[in-house]
Amino acid sequence: MSSASSKYANLPDVDFDQPDLYESEDPKVIPDSSENETEDSECKKTSILAAVSSLKKKLDSVSNNPIFFNQSDSLADSSTSWKKYYESVSSDKTSTINTAQRNNTINSVSVAEFERRLSAIENAISPSSDIASTSTHNVPLSVSINELKTKVELLTNPKFLESVSKRAKFASEELDKLSKSKEILSSLASEQDKDATSQDKFQSAQDVLTRANQEKIATLYEKLPSLEPMTLLIPSLLDRLDNLSKLHVKAASVVESFSHVDDFINVTQKSKLSDLTQIVETLQSSIESNSALMVNNVKELEQRMANLSK
User: Fold this and answer.
1) What does the record list as GO biological process (predicted)?
2) Whole-model pTM above 0.85?
C-alpha cells in the first residue's frame, strides 16, 4: 500500500486508508426450457391478437371513409374475413385442447392396435397346441423373441453351419456303415441257416460215433486235471516253440543251401575228374608211343654200332 500511495498520492479524491472491495458477479440463473417455451407461445399469441385488433380498427376507419372505397360489399367482405381470422386466432386455445383430446383418443386406439398386433405375433410364434401350456406358464413374448433371435443367429453363423454339415456327413457315413453292416448281418444270417443245416448233419454224424472214440474222449477228459498245473507254463512254452519254429526254418534253409552246395561240388568234381581222366589217357597214349619210338631207336643204334665194329 505504501507503493500505491506514493504512486497515486497526487490524484484527488483517492482514499488509500480504506480496505479494497471486490464485487462478485451474481450467479446466472438458467431458466427452464419448458417455462421459456410457454412464455414465448403466450407472448406470440398476445402480439398476434394485438396486431389483429389494430388492423381491425384501421379497416373500420378506412371502411367509414367513402374516398377510398366505393363498394360497400367488398368492405363488408373484408371486415367479415378479418373477423373470422380474429375468431380463429382466439379459438387456438380451444383447438389445442381438442387436438390434445384427439391425440389421447389416437393414443388409446394405437395402444389397442399394438396389443392386437402383439397377440397376433404371439399366436404366430407359439403353435395352437401350446396355447394352454403358455397360458398356464405365462411365458413373456420377449423370451420367445430372444429364443428366435438366438436361433436365427445360429443359422447365420458359418461355424455353426460348418459343424452341422460335418455332423450331417458323419451321420451319412454312419448310415452307410449301418447299411453295410445290415447287409453283412443278412449274409451271416443266411450262412447261419446253412450252418444250422450242417450242424444238424454233424449232430447226426456224432450220433454215429463208435464206442472206441467215446472211450478215447473219456480218457482225455480224465487227464485234464493233471494238465491244469501246466497252464502257467503254457505261455512260455508257446514262446519257446515259436522261437524254435523260427530256428527250424533257418536250419531248413541252411540244409537246403548245403544240399545245393553239395550238388554243385559233385557236378564240378565229376567234370574235373572227366577232364583229368582224359588228360591221363592222352599222357598214357603219348608215353606208349614215345617208348615204342625209343625202343626202335635203340635197336637201330645197336645195329649201327654192330656194323661199325665189323
Assistant:
1) microtubule-based process
2) no
